[in-house]
Specification:
Elements lengths: L1 H4 L7 H13 L3 E6 L14 H10 L4 E3 L6 E3 L2 E6 L5 E6 L13 H13 L2 H4 L6 H5 L26 H21 L16 E8 L2 E6 L6 H4 L35 E7 L2 E6 L6 H6 L6 E6 L3 H9 L5 E3 L3 H9 L3 E5 L3 E7 L9 H10 L2 H8 L5 E2 L21 H11 L5 E8 L9 H14 L3 E8 L4 H5 L7 E7 L5 H9 L2 H4 L5 H11 L5 H17 L2 E6 L2 E5 L3 E3 L14 E2 L8
Parallel strand pairs: 1-10, 1-11, 15-16, 15-17
Antiparallel strand pairs: 2-3, 4-5, 5-7, 6-7, 8-9, 9-10, 11-19, 12-19, 13-17, 13-18, 14-18, 20-21
């Protein structure tokens, strides 16, 4: 309207034709609102879903995911083989694949990416969330197996173990006996270039399109793990030239991969992606001629503001629909696309806090929370209360005993601990939605209400997400309760365990050589009953130790206006915008 009012001159036939031609040539543009801006556009040192939302369009991995089953399929590697001992993998690369700078993908490019990850500084590696360190545990040291005496409950004179404590001690001793034979073996073979528990041995270009990767210990989940966004292959031209502490510094501002979209700009809170015309998989575009040609990703923190922007036609769609606007969207005939639950929300309990150090207080908190009400009131229908940190899709039984709502039991435990209403700090994020936490302020309020009913006094500590919320609650400077969660990247238990426990000493004030030993022993087990039992035992160890209280396995959803007719949702958030289907309206000028 403003443009029309600025011009009073008559419109000529020529200018009308030019305008019509410009509209006709305008690229199909998807305007998507995310709940937060990307933190880093280098997937090797990113850890947040919003960064990966962008980088998944620009980069690709050796192994991809089937959009329907979530199973690993050919990616940049068109095929692969594995040796009988599980220590050597050979990948045959696709030919004719180009990076966005015009250079060709070959074995040398893949090797350069792996060498960059393996030699990355510890400081940069710590910023990674779903990449090389998480897959190969490259900087980890071999845990020292505890002795049976270490696992016995320490009692003062005259004290006796309660039934609960007897169960906990018995479990610890049984878990120790189960992993002891594993640690009598030679766990890792060959020399390590990093931590003693690194699974990575070497990688080399066997020929122009053949890559050989060797491990120091079998890792049955490797092929699935190579689908993680942090394992994306970047153009070698961008891996050098930066400062000594990060030679690939250019990737932070100019990401460079082989994906269907190339990076155009990231300015004033708006990321612009454009179709890559030399993309190797032209059949993907042919199969979907209504794909977006330009994608504009903005960030709007509030789900209510995201909905308002879509209704005003300022955006075409948004992620993370909240439960209270779902009904309005359905009534308005909007396209709502749900994801199956593959993330977990939890309440962290830091043992460096005087009261949270007491097992009785941690158990009281677990019994005070109304998990079912939380899931029903603040999450999309179908979200389930969580009895462990592993989602049901992984088929690992929940541990016993389960901490069901029991306010009387909670108050008795607080009395045993000598707690008399002292304040305990409780941190929660502001101005953000996560797929595991769509309504953080209201979730905090619900939990605070539950805890108040049993006499626990909370000192709220709201922290804006973009002001370093995650860094704060995972630091030595904070030692209260906090809300956080984890979104799984591939179908494997170790992904959740490694992601959530990566900073357990700083986040929960929690260390356990028994747990570390159990996790290491379970990683090399092939799928089957033995593996299932091993992970069930790990969950039981965590259930007794209670560094955190699992809360909800949420269903998340996106919403779109009528110009988007299909969106390729994925529980693992592996959603390629080239598969989105749109009609030609509205046309957005480039």
């Amino acid at each position: 309207m403003a443009l029309v009012s600025c011009s009073t001159a008559p419109t000529s036939a020529t200018s009308t034709a030019s305008t019509a031609k410009a509209v006709e040539q305008a690229p199909r543009t998807l305007r998507l609102a995310a709940p937060a801006p990307p933190v880093r556009l280098d997937p090797a040192i990113a850890a947040d879903s919003e960064s990966f939302r962008v980088t998944r369009q620009i980069y690709e991995t050796l192994i991809s995911l089937d959009s329907n089953s979530g199973s690993p399929v050919a990616g940049l590697a068109e095929s692969w083989t594995q040796s009988e001992d599980g220590l050597t993998y050979t990948f045959t690369l696709r030919q004719g694949v180009k990076f966005h700078d015009g250079t060709e993908l070959d074995a040398k490019a893949v090797v350069e990416n792996f060498k960059r990850w393996a030699t990355m500084s510890s400081k940069l590696a710590a910023d990674s969330g779903q990449g090389f360190n998480e897959v190969f545990h490259h900087r980890e040291d071999l845990p020292k197996l505890p002795s049976p005496k270490d696992l016995e409950t320490k009692l003062k004179d005259g004290e006796q173990l309660s039934e609960y404590e007897q169960g906990a001690e018995q479990h610890r001793l049984q878990a120790f006996e189960a992993v002891k034979p594993v640690f009598k073996q030679t766990l890792f073979v060959g020399k390590s270039s990093a931590g003693s528990a690194s699974y990575f041995s070497s990688i080399q270009a066997t020929s122009k399109y053949l890559v050989t990767l060797k491990l120091r210990r079998a890792l049955p989940s490797l092929i699935d793990a190579l689908t993680l966004p942090g394992m994306a292959i970047a153009a070698p031209s961008a891996l050098t030239g930066g400062p000594k502490d990060n030679p690939a510094d250019a990737l932070l501002t100019t990401p460079m991969g082989t994906g269907p979209f190339k990076f155009a700009s990231n300015k004033d809170g708006l990321v612009r992606l454009e179709i890559f015309n030399d993309y190797w998989n032209s059949a993907r575009f042919e199969a979907n001629k209504n794909h977006p040609e330009v994608v504009l990703i903005s960030s709007i923190a509030s789900p209510y503001n995201r909905e308002t922007a879509m209704r005003a036609d300022e955006i075409d769609g948004f992620d993370l629909v909240s439960v209270d606007i779902m009904r309005n969207l359905i009534r308005g005939a909007k396209l709502v696309v749900q994801r199956d639950p593959f993330s977990v929300l939890y309440l962290g309990l830091d043992r460096r806090n005087k009261w949270l150090a007491k097992p009785e207080v941690r158990r009281a908190i677990a019994h005070a929370i109304n998990h079912g009400q939380l899931a029903d009131k603040l999450f999309i229908q179908g979200s389930k209360s969580a009895g462990s940190i592993l989602p049901p899709a992984l088929s690992i039984p929940e541990p016993e005993p389960r901490y069901n709502l029991d306010q009387n039991q909670a108050m008795q435990l607080l009395e045993q601990a000598g707690y008399k209403g002292e304040e305990i700090e409780f941190a929660y994020p502001l101005r953000v939605s996560r797929n595991y936490l769509p309504l953080p302020e209201r979730t905090f309020a619900q939990l605070a209400e539950d805890l108040a009913k049993v006499g626990i006094k909370i000192k709220p500590r709201p922290i804006p997400w973009t002001d370093g919320y995650v860094d704060t609650v995972r630091s030595k400077d904070f030692n209260g309760m906090h809300l956080l969660g984890y979104a799984g990247g591939y179908r494997n238990e170790d992904d959740f365990l490694s992601g959530i426990l990566a900073a357990k000493a700083d986040e929960f004030g929690y260390t356990s050589t028994l747990l570390d030993s159990q996790i290491l022993a379970a990683r090399s087990l092939e799928p089957g009953d033995e593996r299932t039992a091993a992970y069930a035992s790990i969950l039981t160890t965590m259930n007794y130790d209670l560094p955190l209280v699992p809360l909800v396995f949420p269903i998340s959803a996106l919403a779109f206006n009528s110009n988007v007719t299909f969106y390729p949702s994925s529980p693992m958030l592996n959603e390629c915008f080239a598969d989105i289907q749109m009609n030609n309206s509205p046309a957005i000028s480039s």
